Amino acid sequence: MRFRAKISDVGCLAHFSRAVSTVAKLAKACALRLTCDQLIFIAGARGAVGGARLWCEVRQGKVFDEFQMEGVAAEKNEIYLEVTPENLSRALKTAQNAKAVKIKLTNKHCPCLTVAVELPSLSSTSRVVTHDIPVGIIPRKLWNDFREPSVPDFDVSIYLPALKTMKSVVERMKNLCNSIVIEANLNGEMNLKIETDLVCVTTHFKELGNPPWVGSQNSSQERDPETMAEARIDIKRLLQLLAGQQVNPTKALCNIASQRIVHFILLHEDVSLQYFIPALV
Questions:
Q1: Is the pTM here over 0.85, yes or no?
Q2: Which tens digit of pLDDT belongs to each residue from 18-62?
Q3: Contact of 60 with 39, CB cutoff 8 Å
Q4: How far is CA 32 from CA 11, 193, 202, in A?
C-alpha cells in the first residue's frame, strides 16, 4: 500500500483544511477511505445503532497538485484507515502560510499519515515541520461496514435557510429542550419547533425552494405541496452540524423521511458532506 499527495495552492489548502476541521467537529474518530480520485471521511458506520452518520467526500482533482496511491490489490485499489480527524486538522492548521504540504502514508513504529509542512523562510533553505499522525489499517474483510449510507425515500427535500441564521435559532432553542422538530413541505416552507410542558416555540422559514430531484422519490411524487413532513431529532446533533461546519456550502439542503431520519447535504466545489440524523422515537 502506498499513498502520497501534495497541495501547494493556498486556497486549495485552506479549502481542504476547512473540510477536515468540519469532520473533526462532528466525529472523534472516523475511517478515511482513499481511492484514485477522492478521499472519503466516514463516521458512525460501525456499532452506531441509532446514532448520526457522516459521509464527506473530497474530490482530489482540483485540490491536490499530486496524488498517488496504490491500494491493497489491483482489483481493490483502495486503502481504508482509522484516523482521529482532530489530529489531522491540527496538523493542517499549522500550514496556513505554507508553501506546500505533503501527506504520505508511512510506517514509523506504527502506520502514520505523515504531514510535511514546508514553511516560507528568509534564507534559501526552507523550513519543514513534520507531523506523524498514527492511523490504523482497516482490514479488507471490514470494508463493507463503511459503505455509503443509502438515502432513504424521503417525503420532502428542501433547501436550507442561511446556516448562520439557522444556528442562532437552534442555539436559543437548545436551552429549552433536548429535541427539535424539523418540518417542511413542497412549497418551500420549513419550521423549527420545540415543545415542552411549559413552552412551544416555532420559527418559520418561507420561500426556501425545493430541489428538482431527478429520479423517482415515490413518496414525494404525488404529495400535497402544503402537507408537512416532520421528524424529531436530537437538538445537540443538529447544533453540532451547524456550529462545526466550515465548508461554507454553495448549496445546503435536507431531506426528511417522516418520523425516520433527516438527511443533510452540504455542497461546495470539490467537497460534499452528508450528515444523517435519525429521528427520536
A1: yes
A2: 999 999 999 999 999 999 999 999 998 655 445 889 999 999 888
A3: yes
A4: 22, 35, 39
